[in-house]
């Protein structure tokens, strides 16, 4: 899913969440259209194991990250850099991608960053509100093949869990971070105030923070306030 953007502007790579697709996470809520209208070229692939992706099923989290790095490399061939925005599972891949010296990430937007690796919890049989939410999403995926593919992603995540709170406390957020966002009712995600505080502590970045009132982990996506903030943060 691509669009012609402004000359010289890096493309925007969008990385979606678990048990979803790029269209469901970014297309239907209007992110792609808003970025295109701002003159940006958008690249929004389905993650391995999701939607129309033909990528091999991941065996480890490193496989997911390698795939994301390949997407970034292809995206930045013309301009030398890429802006990345990630949501939920996609935000953890975007975070790690920004830390890779050769990935060429210029600006980074994170929305709904999981406080801990809820997929790893699900793989390990932990039962709580977060894993029940993810299990329900997996069950709703459709046919047996779609569920099998998602279960492979869950197992891959469990091989090397991404704990957002621990990463934040140990090293702060990536220096390219320009916006961190979450819904005020999101029980799964790090709150922007936490991320901004860690950024100040470690001196890594000075991101804007957005809390969308009355929205949870999913309902935050179609927020007009969030769309505008993303476009503004990645602009110019």
Automatic annotation (TrEMBL):
Pfam families: Abhydrolase_1. Residues 10-128 form the AB hydrolase-1 domain. GO terms for cellular component: membrane. GO terms for molecular function: catalytic activity. PANTHER family: HYDROLASE, PUTATIVE (AFU_ORTHOLOGUE AFUA_2G14860)-RELATED, MONOACYLGLYCEROL LIPASE. The lineage of its organism: Bacteria, Bacillati, Actinomycetota, Actinomycetes, Micrococcales. This is Pimeloyl-ACP methyl ester carboxylesterase.
């Amino acid at each position: 899913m691509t669009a012609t953007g402004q000359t010289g502007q890096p493309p925007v790579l969008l990385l979606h969440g678990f048990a979803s697709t790029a269209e469901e996470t970014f297309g239907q809520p209007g992110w792609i259209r808003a970025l295109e209208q701002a003159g940006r070229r958008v690249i929004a692939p389905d993650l391995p194991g999701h939607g129309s992706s033909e990528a091999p099923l991941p065996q480890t989290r490193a496989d997911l990250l390698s795939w994301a790095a390949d997407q970034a490399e292809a995206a930045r061939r013309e301009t030398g850099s890429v802006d990345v925005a990630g949501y939920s599972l996609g935000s953890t891949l975007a975070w790690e991608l920004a830390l890779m010296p050769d990935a060429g990430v210029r600006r980074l937007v994170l929305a709904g960053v999981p406080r801990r690796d809820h997929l790893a919890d699900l793989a390990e049989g932990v039962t709580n509100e977060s894993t029940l939410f993810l299990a329900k999403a997996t069950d709703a995926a459709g046919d047996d093949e779609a569920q099998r593919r998602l279960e492979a992603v869950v197992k891959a995540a469990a091989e090397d869990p991404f704990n957002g709170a621990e990463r934040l406390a140990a090293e702060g957020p990536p220096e390219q971070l320009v916006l961190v966002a979450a819904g005020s009712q999101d029980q799964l995600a790090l709150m922007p105030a936490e991320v901004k505080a860690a950024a100040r502590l470690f001196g890594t970045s000075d991101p804007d923070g957005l809390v969308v009132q009355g929205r949870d982990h999913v309902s935050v996506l179609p927020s007009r306030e969030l769309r505008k903030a993303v476009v503004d943060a990645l602009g110019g």
